[in-house]
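User: I'm putting together a small comparison set for a docking exercise, and I want a reference complex before I start. The sequence is below, and the ligand is nicotinamide-adenine-dinucleotide. Could you produce the 3D structure with the ligand included, as structure tokens?
Assistant: Of course. I'll restate your input first, then give the structure tokens for the complex.
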Amino acid sequence: MQKVAVVTGAAGGMGRAIVTRLLGDGMVVVGLDIDAAALAQMEVQTGFTGIEADLMDAAAIADTFARIAQDFDGVDALVNNAGTCFMSEFPDIPVDEFERQMSLNFSGAFHCCQAAIKLMAGREGVRKIVNISSNGAYNFDAFDPPHYRASKAALDTLTKDLARRYATEKIAVNSIAPAMTETPLFGVVSAEVLAKAIAQMPHGRAMQPSEIAAWVGFLISPAGDISSGNVIILNQGRDVR
Ligand SMILES: NC(=O)c1ccc[n+]([C@@H]2O[C@H](COP(=O)([O-])OP(=O)(O)OC[C@H]3O[C@@H](n4cnc5c(N)ncnc54)[C@H](O)[C@@H]3O)[C@@H](O)[C@H]2O)c1
């Protein structure tokens, strides 16, 4: 039987690469995103179903997973990839921006975990959750603002809690924390800041979404069964001291 993966932020740079990777690995993939038009274009891929959902809305997440429960037998893997980086600088961060940052990057992933774990019950093998965190939660030299860093640090604590909580139920939970990866999210910073950040990458180049997706695919494959509770930092060795 084909395994079912749910990928959030499926229509973004990283999301599309993760969808391609998991489809290539033979999974059925359900992609969630607020961008309905982009999801519709992606439906040409065999095995892919797009569902429009605002992941800042807990009720919408509940409705979406109710639909997934109805249309698919259950869920074998969840990739919490949806996220963004709002760039106001501390202390002048508007309340609304702070709340939206935490809502998409942390609360949305939290609610997806709550719903997906219930649909993982009774599935064969080790089920997987992969949370897409950020190197920004650990490297304080780069440009990331504090509400972005904090949202990803919270996500990584959720990773560890769920990893421990569900270990004996064979649900493995890991975070992948990439540094500079070439996606539309690069647009949140100026060309000058971007060039400086890319120049700091040891290989002299940004990473590609397919390179991050390969690690997601590995964790979700049987080879990844024995890893849980880890935050895997992908940055070409930039921050090793
Ligand atoms: N690109 C990088 O350098 C980088 C580095 C570290 C971590 N990350 C993380 O990778 C993840 C993917 O980012 P990306 O670079 O592909 O960005 P992206 O902007 O290309 O993709 C983000 C996706 O999330 C969707 N989205 C936004 N708001 C939403 C909402 N309310 N509900 C549902 N979907 C929504 C967007 O439509 C988009 O498809 C994010 O969690 C980001 O924090 C990216």
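The domain at 4-234 is CATH 3.40.50.720 (Rossmann fold). The first helix runs from residue 13 to 24.
User: Thanks, that's exactly what I needed.
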